Amino acid sequence: MSETVAVIDYGSGNLRSAAKALERAAADAGLSARVLVTSDAAEIAAADRLVLPGVGAFADCMAGLTAVPGLKEALSDVVLQKQRPFLGICVGMQLTTEAGVEFGRHDGLGWLKGEVTRVDPPDTALKIPHMGWNTIAGMRPHPLTAGLDGAHVYFVHSYALQNGAADEVLATCTYGVPFAAIAGRDNIIGTQFHPEKSQAAGLTLLTQFLKWRP
Fold it and tell me: 128, CA 20 to 30 Å: which among 18, 33, 42, 154?
């Protein structure tokens, strides 16, 4: 049976690359999936799976999300009430937390515990933004983390979830300081890295997301 995967368009950019990666993951795995890039609340409400990408500052992305009529309400209904699989990518993952502190404190969706704070490595040779390939480790058992312990994935960020709940942080990365590389609970999961830019490891995660039955 074919499923609809809604990639949510709220003006954050990076949508097409995420959609193409999902299409490739589905094709490679022989899965029947329709990947739809949309900002329409009705289409989002009807989708089987949701993906929320994000590029930029936490506050700007939250403002963009809030500005789309009915979008936050549709998200809350699909994710929290209907409990359909949800994947947040980079800032899309950050928005699921309680708050972000970039350019002041701004409330998040509050689905995951903790705040998104600036990555501040003590080694001044480590430049911010953190940009490039790094290893993820410390995997907790989860259908989406299978086979990814020690994988190299691609990051572009200056802020991250560094004080998440121990039972919600599913994998970590260390860039001078540790932070959550994957976090989630129930039907909600997010990656600080970009699976659509992470080659084989990223496609593995996206394939496992498309097969996931929380």
Answer: 18
* 196 in catalytic set: yes
**Which residue in the block uniquely carries the two structure tokens 């802020």?**
159
- The pTM score is 0.96
**Out of 23, 73, 90, 115, which one is annotated catalytic?**
90
pLDDT more than 70, % of the chain:
100
- Choice among 106, 130, 157, 194 that is catalytic: 194
**Catalytic residue flag (residue 90):** yes
β partners of residue 22: none
- Asked if 106 is an active-site residue, the reply is no
Per-residue model confidence (pLDDT) at position 56: 87
Yes or no: say if 80 and 112 are a contact pair by the CB < 8 Å rule.
no
Query: What domains are defined for the chain?
Result: 3-211 (3.40.50.880)
- Please give the single-letter amino acid code of residue 3: E
Separation between Cα atoms, residue 69 and residue 158, nearest integer Å: 29
